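Thread: Newbie trying to understand structure tokens

Hi all, I'm a second-year student working on a class project, and my supervisor (Dr. K.) asked me to get a predicted structure for one chain before our next meeting. I've only ever worked with sequences, so writing a 3D structure as a token string is new to me. If someone could post the tokens and maybe explain what I'm looking at, I'd be very grateful. Here's the chain:
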Amino acid sequence: MNAPPSSPPSGTSAPSASANRPRSLADLFISFTLLALQGFGGVLAIVQREIVDRKRWLTQEEFIEDWAVAQIMPGPNVVNLSLMIGGRHFGVAGALAALAGLLTVPLILVIGLAVLHDRFADNPVVAGALHGMAAVCAGLIGAAGLRLASALKKSPMPLSWCLAIAAAGFILVAFLKCPLPWVLFGLGGLGCVLTYRRLAT
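---
Reply by user tm_fold:
Sure, no problem. This is what the structure looks like when written as tokens:
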């Protein structure tokens, strides 16, 4: 007789439906450390590539759902996501390992760079380099947004509704300067209601 499938530890959510998962706490720590060291200014593109494309810890749809939850929670998005992924597979220990990997080495580097920046901030070469990096980060974020948008085809809502909500969010934040929490809860709540009604019919 086959043994029944094991269930996830109490207090954690079910593992991802994707094929792979972190092998150990050390794997979580190292993976999030390497991820953090690549996230210069625009971490969304790096997170999506590492977690979905390379590690395959999440499917594209799972990543969008988890990122949406991380977005509306207090605190930095990627920190919230690391806690969710680590906790899903290894409970509290996994959440702490992912968080430590995400913050430890970058914190040391940031402190060192802050000291150097204070010394060379007025150097025009340094200022120009920082402006150039900002342009690259903007391109990375835009590319990641376009890739994530491909998952809208599987949304219960019609694509036209999804695009309308996305356009409204862009206008409210970019042009009308509305506070981000208002936009998230307002349009996010609208999306939840429309999706629920769509599934209920």
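A couple of things are worth pointing out once you decode it. The chain has two domains: 25-151, 155-201. The mean pLDDT is 82. Feel free to ask follow-ups in this thread.
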